[in-house]
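Listing 4. Sequential folding, example run.
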Amino acid sequence: MRRAHTLTVLFILTCALGYVTLLEETPQDTAYNTKRGIVASILVFLCFGVTQAKDGPFSRPHPAYWRFWLCVSVVYELFLIFILFQTVQDGRQFMKYIDPHLGVPLPERDYGGNCLIYDPGNETDPFHNIWDKLDGFVPAHFFGWYLKTLMIRDWWMCMIISVMFEFLEYSLEHQLPNFSECWWDHWIMDVILCNGLGIYCGMKTLSWLSLKTYKWQGLWNIPTYKGKMKRIVFQFTPYSWVKFEWKPASSLRRWLAVCGIIFVFLLAELNTFYLKFVLWMPPEHYLVLLRLVFFVNVGGVAMREIYDFMDDPKFHKKLGQQAWLVAAITATEFLIVVKYDPYTLTLSLPFYITQCWILGIILVLTWTAWRFFIRDITLRYKEIRRQKQEHKHEKDKCLSNGDGHSAMLEEQNGNKLRERKL
């Protein structure tokens, strides 16, 4: 039934596109015709994928919604592959086909400089440094971390990713000028206010969703209009709730998986800044916003698929399709950055930054070896030693009571009887 419905929709869409092309005279503009043909091809593919792609773990507001974003992931990955195989100049100029204002080098904004919270030299507005930093990225930080918290569903992981990204900005500010920020911009405005408040609101929302009663009733079975409106609103909430318990220290497999999730999150965050740097896109461009909206929708599905695979590998024997696509997209974006501007990426880190990262990596590796190898061996040795001591204590207790001599005689007689039988 679903296949027949798909073929019907595809037939109608194809006929409509063909009818449009027959009504008008085909323009003699090659660029315009190429863009129109690519858009029509993408629409046909999305129509097919929305009705035929495999369903993911989410069913609200509708499975077709998540199938749509899965197909958008495929289209975006193909676009990235195309950009990857272009020359640097052609790739940047190709962006003009999307927006004629692109393809022009843009100056990066430096958020550092004067880091005084109160500037007595400016009598007109001593707090001008704070107002200069309060741009459109402040609410973007808050809403971004609110949605990331809904994806990860763990306070510790969110805080680790938030703090780690600030360390990455410190480490890479010699490569990208807009990573250079004041200390209070890093830790007060970003980590505490924007990110911290977003994580807090996200955790409160998760708490409400975990306590909510998930008992669904058909829309037409609800007698009151108020109940119908409430049911429509709740259609955009999860069908059921799964609490994420990552437990990274429970096993080596889960620990490596959590470290991999954190690494991919940080790499995707860095790709946001490096991509707009190498492709000459201004930070406020709508393509940057569309990419973030895209990752918000596909990231939630990917995190659920990863958690299901980790939590119940017997039932979920393979990692979900959306998780693989997100990993492939993140890797392809990084390859584009490497190809388009290898000089920036190869700028050597300052010596003290290198020392800090080496020390951090050594500490993580040392803790991993102690927690999952040395500690287990030590606990196993202590358990064997404890069992031997308990056995020796029971034997001494048996020999020290009043029947100790008779017990020894019975043991000797038993040994002799077993020898005769043999």
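-- end of first protein; second protein begins --
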Amino acid sequence: MTRDGYVVPVDPQQAVVTAKKKARSSRSWMLLDATGQSTVLDVDKYAIMHRVQIHARDLRILDPLLSYPSTILGREKAIVLNLEHIKAIITSDEVLLRDPWDEHVIPVVEELQRRLPSENAIRPDHSEGRENLGGHNDEAGEEDESPFEFRALEVALEAICSFLAARTTDLETAAYPALDELTSKISSRNLDRVRKLKSAMTRLTARVQKVRDELEQLLDDDDDMADLYLSRKLAGASPVSVSGAANWFAASPTIGSKISRASRASIITVRGDENDVEELEMLLEAYFMQIDSTLNKLTTLREYIDDTEDYINIQLDNHRNQLIQLELFLSSGTVSLSIFSLVTAIFGMNIPYTWNDDHGYMFKWVVIFSGIFTAVLFILIMSYSRYKGLVGS
């Protein structure tokens, strides 16, 4: 056995136990540096804490076995990021991503490898090329000049907003036809289908709401946003000049909310001190608008579901009123027939009465008047029911 080799146990069960113990004692992390190079680390939490200099309580937020709400925390030398499946630690020159082999995290890793490297650092500056490409290169250069931590944070925010927006779109695609089918035909199958969709919508709304609340809380506190300027703190919190302030700006290239360079320059001119968080506020505000739009879609879907439930309840009430009308109709007929049967039964009994002699025609008139009385009584009962609104017209 060499020093760098591994011992393969003879017993397969022992190998499984050893692998489980190793999985418990260490976790898989992927390290991405400023050049986009990735390295898989299999280290325990103490090594991670020592590397990025954060507390155990901050690392506990990233534990996939524990349920913590979406969080963006700024520490002295790192940003602790917990957004759904994206659990990362961002420093001024590297990103540590947890569970990099997850199917939802793999696209984030690929996007980080594409966006983290600064084109100005890996591509020589040719004046002729800039003249040929014109303003496009200038705009790309501005985006690449943003701090490393902002580029990584933007990738994470973009990924989670796009992920939740895609889930919302899939839910809308399935929910609206199901609701329309339920309004046309009320059945157990359609009701169960809508029930499952409503449960999925409630869970998704809670997830979107957590991300939105975290961004809103971060936007409301300038001190929390200032803690995310890792490069500025690393440089000793030196005042930002007008020419260098543009390097702090990170615009969103995906959601159609870019700010023109002229407006950015005017903002930087007005605020050029070390406490300026306007650039980060623009970045967070852009993704806050996107996640808020996703939440509005879910709210609209919830209102549509509530309207459908009201419509279904109205239909059920209508059917219930029809049953009540039928029951009242049958009850009125039964009462009227019982009175008619009572009269005819009394006069039809075979009992010798002295007044019954030579008065046979009386029985016929009693039966006739009893039938008329029964019909009038039935009409009066139905008229009174309609007047009180117990049955429909």
